[in-house]
Amino acid sequence: MTRPLPPADSGAAQRFPVVVVGAGPAGLTVGNILRAASVDCLVLETETRAFIEQRPRAGVMEEWAVRGLEKRGLARSLLDRAELHTACEFRFDGERYRFPYGELTGSHHFVYPQPLLVTDLVREYADVRGGAIRFGVRDVRIHDLDTDRPWVSYTCPETGEHQVVHCDFVAGCDGARGASRASLPPERVRIARHDYGIGWLALLAEAPPSADCVLFGCHARGFAGQMPRSPEVTRYYLQCPPGDDVENWPHERVWSELGERLGAAGVPPLTEGRLIEKRVLDMHDYVVEPMVHGRLFLAGDAAHLVAPIAAKGMNLALHDAFLLGDALVARLTTGDDSGLDGYAEACLRRVWDYQEFSQWLSEVYHGTAAGDPFRAGTTLARLRRLFTSPAAAAAFAEQYLGTAERY
């Protein structure tokens, strides 16, 4: 059983072998792996439990990621409730082109919104496996990373008391603006960043999907995408200028543009519904190297971001978490350091491969709207090749599904 936390206002220093900063998919997966091995850990999260269980995020999961969760006893609800997708559809030049990647590869995607996965993971960690977790903490700081005695401090939300936690390792899973990144010495960090120079208007609609699969509309007016989330809710994207104001996109304009960009011969009109979320995302990627700083191990968005262009972000976070959780268990239960020593290299092979695919796919999505006839022509050539060349189709399917064995 996990050791109970001392009262928040006791002033007593706490100790856990691992402190996990951030309760997203990466942090909660690491915590669950540790608890399954009877390793104590403390998860610190700045938001409330209700907030992280409702925060809208990604929803497309690659099969290997789901199998990794299943292997660790973390996929029961997912396997019962997720939708399986075996095809996607491109719409360009006024026509529709279905890409049956399930038939080509025997693999598929799972569609399971991230809030549901986070709800499953936090329930398993806190309620089933007895893991220690503190929500709503403030002023998280990570100290003495270059020693074998790091420690983490935070402010208790209930009492305002300053708390100290000693540990052996810190898993930094709290995103680009969290305490983990803030604790890195700037002179020892390289952040490789790529800006696409475009924005996506991210929308959630209270409407059933207008097709049974993901839709990619490659149009001269800009990209549009449909990503089913549930029978009642659909995620849509519309290419827009970076930094655009959501007030420029009233209900009527959104549905008009979606209908235009996703239109094709013989398809019915989109099923419209109330827009329950509108956000503008400036498309960019970054990779932080190194991912390890003394006793701090970065995972998920703290270490890398891949734009939602290829729906890879949550999958990369889980890949990091599987590697880091298993490596910490090996180190803390048997003294085996090999997993921790090879952690960053093993993560970055997949990270950079997914970044390259995101760049390639961005040109496919956005090239026809670039205002450059040459780019538009080469983009259409790439799209047609997917449906005329078995080799091109196989290569796309491998990257889209993340099934390459080279990882």
Q: What integer value in Å does the Rg equal?
A: 22 Å
* Number of discrete helical segments: 13
Give the beta-strand count: 21
Question: Structural class of the secondary structure composition?
Answer: alpha/beta
Largest sheet: 8 strands, mixed
Q: Level of helix content? A: 25-40%
How would you write the strand order of the largest sheet?
7-6-15-16-17-14-18-21
Question: What amount of the residues lies in strands?
Answer: 25-35%
User: How many angstroms separate the termini?
Assistant: 35 Å
Global morphology: globular
Mean pLDDT rating: 93
Protein name: 4-hydroxybenzoate 3-monooxygenase
Pfam family, one: FAD_binding_3
Domain FAD-binding: 16-357
Keywords: FAD, Flavoprotein
Protein architecture, described:
The longest helix has 24 residues, at 343-366. The protein has 13 helices and 21 strands. It is globular. Strands 7-6-15-16-17-14-18-21 form an eight-stranded mixed β-sheet. Strands 9-3-2-13-20-19 form a six-stranded mixed β-sheet. A four-stranded mixed β-sheet has the order 1-12-11-10. A hairpin with a 7-residue loop joins strand 10 (138-143) and strand 11. It starts with 13 loop residues before the first strand and ends in a 6-residue tail after the last helix. With 407 residues, the protein is of the alpha/beta class. Helix 1 packs parallel to helix 9 (313-334), helix 9 packs antiparallel against helix 11 and helix 11 (343-366) packs across helix 12 (373-386). It has helices spanning 25-36, 49-52, 63-71, 76-81, 101-105, 114-128, 179-182, 251-261, 313-334, 338-341, 343-366, 373-386, 390-401; strands at 14-15, 18-21, 41-45, 60-62, 83-85, 88-92, 95-99, 109-111, 132-135, 138-143, 151-155, 162-166, 169-172, 190-206, 214-217, 224-228, 234-240, 274-289, 292-293, 296-298, 304-305. This is 4-hydroxybenzoate 3-monooxygenase. Pfam families: FAD_binding_3. Keywords: FAD, Flavoprotein. Residues 16-357 form the FAD-binding domain.
